Every structure is written in C-alpha cells, then in structure tokens.
Amino acid sequence: MRKEDKSTIIEQIAAVVKEYNHFYLTETTSLNAEKTSELRKACFKADIKLLVVKNTLLRKALESLDVDYSELFSSLKGSTTVMFSNTGNAPAKLIKEFNKKSDLPLLKAAYVEESFYIGADQLDTLAAIKSKNELIAEVIGLLQSPAKNVVSALQSGGSKLHGVLQTLSER
Known about the structure:
Elements: H1 3-19, E1 22-27, H2 33-45, E2 49-53, H3 55-63, E3 80-85, H4 90-99, E4 106-112, E5 115-118, H5 123-128, H6 132-170
Antiparallel strand pairs: 1-3, 1-4, 2-3, 4-5
Helix pairs in contact: 1-3
C-alpha cells in the first residue's frame, strides 16, 4: 500500500472516530462468513458501524486526534474490528447477545463516556451503563414523582374535605 493511500485511510478512520462518541475494539477473526454476515446485520439494526482495521492505521488515527487514547494501544494486537456507536451500551449488549451462541466477538477494549475499559471482563459493566437518554428519563421520573404525590394528595384530600364539609352542613 502506498504512503498516500495509508494517510487517506488514517484520515478516514480519524473522521469516523470523531463522528461517534463511543467505540469498542473487538476480536472477530475466527467468525465464519455466515456469522460475520449475521453480526453485520445485527450491527446495522442497532445503528452500530462495524469496521475492520489494521492496528497500525487505527493507532495512527487515534494519535492524530486531540484525545489521549494511549490506554487502548496495548489492546491493538491481532485482528481488530471496531464497533462505533452513539449509544454507549449498545455494542456491549450486542456482543453479549452474540456470546450466547459463540465465543466471538470478543471484547478487547472500549472507549465509552470518556472512560477506558480494557479486557473482556468489562463486558458486563459496559452493558449496564445507561445511555444519556436513559439517565435523563430516570431523572425526570424522579423529579415528577414527588410532584405527582403532592397533586394526588391534594386531590384526594380535597374530596375528603368536601365530604366532611357536606356532612357537617347536612347536620
């Protein structure tokens, strides 16, 4: 591969990394064609971009960016497939689903919510991470709960008070 081609690919990889907030480094080498196709379809449905890259090109692309990704460099060994997503836990859930059927894809490392997760043992932690929208919905639910309690208490109290006043006025 010519040097110009490599620099173009590095720039393309860097642009994809900038485009997505989260990415996972995985191992998918021994997946057969059928399983690979199945993985690609599942990634497409989950809005995950799947990209097979050379480790040196990925490393150079990550080095060209403003964020320090050096913690991930130790995971760039063997074959690397990168899963890009704007939802932090989507690739982890997909990997867990696939691991029910086979051992691959295998998580090498991940960059999620501006944190690094190294090793396959981090998969459960990553799957449990809530997305930004899930956290916002949870906070809104927590904020609405006391207000709903107050409104329902006032409504039920009002009918009780009305009942008491009506009984007193009848006597």
